[in-house]
Fold each of these.
Amino acid sequence: MTQPIRRERARLPAAERRRQIIDVTTRLIAERGFWGLSMQDVADGCGLTVPGLLHHVGSKDGLLLAVLEHRDAEDLRSLNEAVGDTESPREICAALVRRNSWQPEIVRLFAVLEAESLTPDHPAHDYFAARQQNTIDGLSRLLKGRTPDPDGLAVKIAALMDGLQVHWLRNPAEIDLVTQWMAAADFIFRDVDPPSGG
């Protein structure tokens, strides 16, 4: 009697495997949310066993944080390339909105997780609280000396951006994220950072 042929799983370099895991997890969380995420589904999507997946990420919470940190690093790198040395709040926000308009699945991922993480027991609760504060602090620094209330305006800009993105995600055929942001920016930045022309 012949032995069945064993099919070996494709071996990938550690960095490539981690990137695959992050990509599969990103897609699944965007579709189902963190609470609907199954480690078995992630493992299946990567051609791994669950123990093999845990070898790379440690835990489900560790996997979530790896996805979030990876996306933030990618977004920061891309934003830095897009804006160069500018310190114009209007131009930085416009570059961020343009980038987000090209990656609805990532924006959806963050919108779903941010809403879920409002509960204190969510593993990304502290991450999103710190991320929101860092965003507002960064905007406030850019606005200092340009407006009497940089902290208040920073909160309004962040809230406007988040709100427009949710409306766009819900109805992308009807809402052009970039067009709506540019119209809103003309209002919100009218006394702060006039458009650079063109």
Note: The two ends are 77 Å apart (CA to CA).
Amino acid sequence: MIAFWLIIAAMLLGALACVLPPLLRTSARGPGQAHAALAGLMIALIPASALTLYMRIGDPVALAMQTAPLASPDRHADAPASMEAAVSRLVARLRADPDDAPGWAMLARSYMALQRPSDAAEAYRRAIALNPRDAELLADYADALASANGGDFNDAALKVIDSALAIDADQPKALALAASAAFDRRDYARAIHFWERLGKAPDLAPQIAQQAQKNIDETRALAAKGSDGSKAKAASIEVRVRLSPELEQRVRPTDTVFVYALADDGSRMPLAVQRLSVSQLPATVRLDDSMSMTPNRRLSDFSRISVDARVSSSGQARPAAGDLTGSSGAVSSKDAGVIDVTIADVVR
């Protein structure tokens, strides 16, 4: 599974790295360049949208928190650098031509591929200001806003989703995001409503329709367990996180800290995630069932868990060499009290 996602990521990076440089070398605008911009946009859009939609329908934040080892570090080592250079040239071109809506959209999707959601959200905002009736663009913007907010749907993201669906009631990504947002609020009836609409959207890929139906079935089962009283009380744990004094000189106050619970079944898919900054440490955070990424993987579904904390100077969810980490080890999710996690190790 991990190899599959790495291949997808490499394909996306490779496509953008190949398409952006020849596009940016064109200095005069004309019909030929417009076609080149459209082709580049489609190549960037198709894999990025498919990946993001799958993540939102299945488990949005969890996939980003996978901690399996990466491929050999020197393999495709120049791809991110090449993409960064291409993005820099695109930024320069947009400064000279700020009314290029497809260019802003391409920049936004490039930022998402580089895991820079805050920059992506700003680029989407510029694109939408020039093209406010594009429902797909609005859905992408909402996704970037949520990603920049640690995967949580804030009021701004919810308003953008509503705007997208007001323009196109069958926009697949907007429906998927609306369903995920409702599920996060534990509004299961509304989540099912949006997933049912997604499943009936025209020209929907069969695998997405199947995933939507799976989510519907699991959410109905979850809602039924809650209504008949047979489900155990929703789990909630308190985690006290601190940084080892020996590592204080290796961090900055603005570095990101991820705190997440893992099941004892060997999966690296988090059951719940919180994000804070080094300046907030030491801190006590709460992890609970409302933070579940999928209906069938919640804290209350597992009696034994572990809680990990990791400092990322880049702010990226994927672990990298030099990150600082710590773990509680296996503990009970039912009667653990306050779980202590000390960040005292360095990722090699």
Note: Strands lie at 236-243, 256-263, 272-277, 283-288, 304-312, 324-332, 338-343, 345-346.
Amino acid sequence: MQRYLLTDYNNASAETRDVYDDFMRTTGESSVPIWLQSLGHSAPLARAYWERAKGTLFSGSLPLPLKEMIVFVVSARHGARYCSACHAQNVLSLDQALEFKDLHAFVTAGAERNLPPYYEHVVAFAEKVVADANQVTDEDFEMLMDEGFSREEICEIIAVIDLASMFNIYTSALKLDLDPNYRAIL
């Protein structure tokens, strides 16, 4: 059973088209993804989800490839098929040092993973937050600070984790189909 309806660009209200246009302008994409079309029936809801994503991913001081890796890892840990595929694609388009097989190995290897050092500490922190945010310790913060992250940047990392979790619940509960340009990793 399909649990959602899509509102394509041509059938969207003017307010929803404004959201779609902002998405495409900001991301450089030439089409509106399924997750956003599934919200297109409600311009306020589409705008709220898009503004949250835009504000979290496209502002702040952390680089976009790191944010995309965080979303990918959180989505993979939550078993969110749509988000893990989408953000695997985004990571690969932003970090040419990685290949699909690297991300797939990360998902399937458990503790035996091989990520570039640039990602390792943030990924470990994100996984701990996903497992139980109440168990994050001062030492976890200090580990990131020792790696050069400020307290503000650690808050930004947590905001990205939270954003991913929100989208994971939304896309998984609806069982969104993958966009044609996404490759399933789960």
Note: The mean pLDDT is 94.
Amino acid sequence: MYPLYCRSVATNVKLLQQLRVTHILNVTEGDSYIHVNTGAEYYVGTGIIYHGIPANDVGYFDLSVYFEEGADIIAQALAYNGDRGKVYVHCQKGYSHSAAIVIAYLMLRHKLDVQATLATVREKREIGPNDGFLYQLCQLNDRVKKD
């Protein structure tokens, strides 16, 4: 994730291409004012592969049903073209939804615990998954420890 306003980066194809982004993971897919209204058709002809997750930034939203899918998408994107893929994971502001999905990816694919993962991501940028997402990440942590 880049320290720019996520919606403006996600809709700036020229910047995404300059950053050599190969994949987009929109963790706030939808067409209301609280979502970022892009889709696969938005990126047609750009060489950027799009994936969307229709999430809302409210504590009662069950983002955990998308943790595995999000982790799979990130892993596939990074492995793209001989490990030269670059994925831009975003939500509206890059603070809650997208951070939770990136944290879930690190926990699932790199076997980091939730505290270490939160600390690592916070060293790179300011994040603040809402309380519901944090609770879901703690539940994921318990599940990952058992595996």
Note: The longest helix spans residues 67-83.
